[in-house]
């Protein structure tokens, strides 16, 4: 992959032109200095030749030789000759020594000359080279100084002009850097000064087309998931999604709940007499009533199971609560006036059965259908519960739950378990999800899936999240730098300003190195529902160094635009999508759609609830980033993990000491 250059085009050109000008000035100065020196040497040699020639002529004249001591010193002083000796084979005839003070004798020019007219005579002299006694003068060097000043001024002006001309290319380059950094939305349209203009316009068009393609991809992915798992008329889940959720629920440990079937009588007659429009209107009204009723119960699945039949799964609810809900549902449906030929007092019937972990999905649906038929035999709007052996369930009411939870929170007795997330590429531990557990009055451990609905019901969500976050931060500070924790947070807590301020203060007091190893998980449905309120909170978490994880993706069918909007780090698939994915093509289609939605973002998809090798092989072939489930490791107490980690650390230290 090509890497973006780290140096701007303008800086390159400015540097290049500056170097060229500096090199040219340097060459001119060096050449001028050498030429100046050569001219001085040639001038001195020519002048001294003339002096020697005058001396030669005067020595040839008897009268001149007699007066040599009178005229020669003046000539030598005028010629900058410091020393001169006129000699022959017999010895020195005349010697001259000037009175100038020479600091460095090495600078003197020395010459040896044979006299042509006086054979056998020669002259040795030392002379000052030209310009040695001259200093820099602005007047004398005014032309050179002016030329240098003009060159510098021209260079500065040229650089400024070049920067101005290339400013548009810098804007275009900066825009390209921001797009490569992922800030496409902020730099969707370029500045009018960008240059070349054609490249800027082409980039504008490509970014606009990319944005449209992303929106179309998001709409298409949502369309695929909607038509695969949702009923188009009511917006409720279809039979495929309901069966998948029920299958996943009964395979989980410590799960119980109820399945309710609602059937509209004489549907075929209504369809034949009133037509599809009237029949669809009745189905839509019934779906609205049921949808409003199930909003109070978390993890509830409402499905249009057949044309005139709805199915509801109520997990983790006691038999008393289920009966109360069924009565409320029947009363709400009876307030609806059905069109003829449906009878006002005999048009809707409800069948209900309970389930616990380990039961078969098919048997549960058969029991619900048998209960529904029993309700129909009564000849009026009614409901009937399938009678089965008493099963173990938690029948605590809100008062008992409040008492238990209050005692646990006051004693700070929340126990944290952990389950690792395993990378699909190399098998290393990506992070560890922390799972809350509590113990009841008898010391029996209760999973979060059982007590979290009660926590929301009694209003202890913020207290629970505060204790979990505090315990996680304290533990993470003691763990080695390779450990990464993921903590679940309820969106309801994040919507409270007091909790957000508390969380911000706690994170600000925590070292950055610890926050970089901390992730926060929120459920997809609640996140999308309160997307506007969650944006600043998500920016705060990411800005402080934490990662943001979306949990239970696929539990509800929503648009995936939030992935890019909030810069999500990880997407965790709902375990119902992972369960037996090797046998369910529709779940594989959903996972492919989710992977495609994350393709142009930094979000990575994690499969939760992996139970066997076949599921994991299919998930890896689809392209998931990591997996989590009992296939890799069971849930283990965080305290046991700490003890094991300390033992391993002591063992490594002991072995190193021996070595």
Automatic annotation (TrEMBL):
InterPro entries, alphabetized: Cyclic-di-GMP_PDE-like, EAL_dom, EAL_sf, GAPES4, GGDEF_dom, Nucleotide_cyclase, Rev_trsase/Diguanyl_cyclase
Gene3D superfamilies assigned to the protein according to its UniProt record, in alphabetical order: 3.30.70.270, EAL domain
Highest taxon of the lineage: Bacteria
Pfam families per record: EAL, GAPES4, GGDEF
UniProt keyword terms in alphabetical order: Membrane, Transmembrane, Transmembrane helix
Entry keyword Magnesium: no
Segments passing through the bilayer: 12-36
Annotated GGDEF domain residues: 255-388
Residues of the EAL domain: 398-649
Keyword DNA-binding part of the UniProt annotation: no
PANTHER family (alphabetical): CYCLIC DI-GMP PHOSPHODIESTERASE PDEF (PTHR33121), RNASE E SPECIFICITY FACTOR CSRD (PTHR33121:SF32)
UniProt-recorded name of the protein: RNase E specificity factor CsrD
Originating organism: Photobacterium sanguinicancri
Lineage: Bacteria, Pseudomonadati, Pseudomonadota, Gammaproteobacteria, Vibrionales
């Amino acid at each position: 992959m090509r890497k973006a250059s780290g140096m701007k085009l303008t800086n390159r050109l400015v540097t290049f032109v500056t170097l060229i000008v500096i090199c040219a000035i340097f060459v001119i100065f060096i050449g001028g200095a050498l030429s100046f020196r050569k001219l001085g040497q040639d001038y001195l040699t020519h002048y001294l030749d003339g002096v020697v020639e005058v001396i030669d002529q005067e020595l040839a004249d008897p009268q001149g030789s007699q007066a040599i001591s009178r005229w020669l010193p003046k000539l030598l002083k005028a010629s900058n000759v410091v020393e001169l000796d006129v000699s022959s084979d017999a010895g020195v005839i005349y010697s001259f020594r000037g009175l100038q003070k020479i600091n460095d004798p090495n600078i003197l020019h020395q010459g040896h000359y044979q006299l042509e007219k006086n054979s056998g005579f020669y002259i040795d002299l030392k002379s000052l080279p030209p310009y040695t006694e001259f200093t820099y003068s602005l007047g004398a060097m005014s032309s050179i100084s002016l030329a240098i000043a003009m060159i510098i001024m021209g260079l500065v002006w040229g650089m400024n002009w070049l920067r101005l001309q290339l400013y548009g290319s810098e804007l275009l380059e900066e825009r390209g850097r921001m797009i490569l950094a992922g800030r496409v939305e902020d730099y969707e349209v370029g500045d009018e000064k960008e240059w070349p203009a054609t490249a800027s316009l082409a980039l504008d068009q490509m970014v606009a087309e990319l944005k449209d393609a992303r929106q179309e991809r998001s709409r298409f992915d949502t369309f695929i998931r909607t038509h695969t798992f949702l009923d188009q008329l009511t917006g409720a889940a279809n039979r495929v999604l309901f069966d998948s959720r029920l299958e996943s629920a009964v395979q989980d440990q410590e799960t119980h709940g109820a399945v309710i079937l609602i059937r509209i009588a004489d549907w075929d007659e209504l369809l034949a007499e009133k037509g599809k429009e009237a029949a669809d209107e009745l189905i839509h009204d019934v779906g609205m009533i049921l949808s409003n009723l199930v909003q109070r119960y978390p993890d509830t699945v409402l499905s249009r199971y057949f044309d005139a039949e709805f199915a509801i799964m109520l997990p983790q609810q006691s038999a008393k609560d289920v009966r109360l809900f069924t009565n409320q549902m029947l009363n709400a449906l009876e307030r609806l006036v059905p069109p003829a030929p449906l009878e006002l007092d005999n048009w809707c019937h409800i069948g209900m059965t309970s389930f616990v972990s380990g039961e078969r999905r098919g048997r549960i649906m058969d029991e619900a259908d048998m209960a529904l038929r029993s309700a129909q035999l009564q000849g009026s709007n009614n409901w009937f519960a399938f009678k089965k052996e008493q099963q173990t369930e938690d029948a605590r009411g809100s008062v008992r739950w409040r008492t238990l939870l209050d005692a646990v929170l006051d004693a700070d007795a929340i126990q944290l378990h952990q389950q690792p997330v395993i990378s699909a590429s190399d098998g290393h531990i990506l992070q560890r999800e922390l799972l809350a557990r509590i113990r009841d009055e008898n010391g029996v451990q209760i999973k979060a899936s059982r007590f979290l609905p009660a926590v929301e019901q009694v209003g202890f969500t913020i207290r629970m999240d505060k204790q979990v976050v505090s315990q996680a931060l304290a533990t993470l500070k003691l763990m080695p730098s390779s450990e990464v924790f993921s903590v679940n947070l309820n969106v309801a807590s994040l919507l409270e300003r007091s909790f957000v301020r508390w969380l911000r203060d706690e994170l600000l007091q925590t070292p950055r190195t610890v926050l970089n190893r901390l992730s926060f998980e929120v459920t997809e449905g609640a996140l999308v529902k309160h997307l506007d309120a969650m944006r600043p909170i998500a920016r705060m978490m990411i800005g402080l160094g934490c990662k943001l994880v979306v949990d239970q993706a696929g539990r509800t069918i929503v648009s995936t635009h939030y992935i890019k909007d909030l810069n999500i780090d990880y997407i965790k698939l709902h375990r119902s999508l992972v369960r037996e994915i090797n046998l369910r093509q529709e779940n594989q289609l959903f996972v492919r759609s989710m992977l495609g939605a994350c393709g142009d973002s930094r979000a990575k998809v994690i499969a939760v609830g992996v139970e066997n090798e076949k599921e994991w092989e299919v998930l890896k072939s689809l392209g998931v980033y990591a997996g989590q489930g009992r296939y890799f490791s069971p849930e283990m107490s965080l305290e046991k993990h700490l003890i094991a980690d300390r033992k391993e650390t002591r063992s490594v230290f002991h072995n190193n000491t021996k070595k």
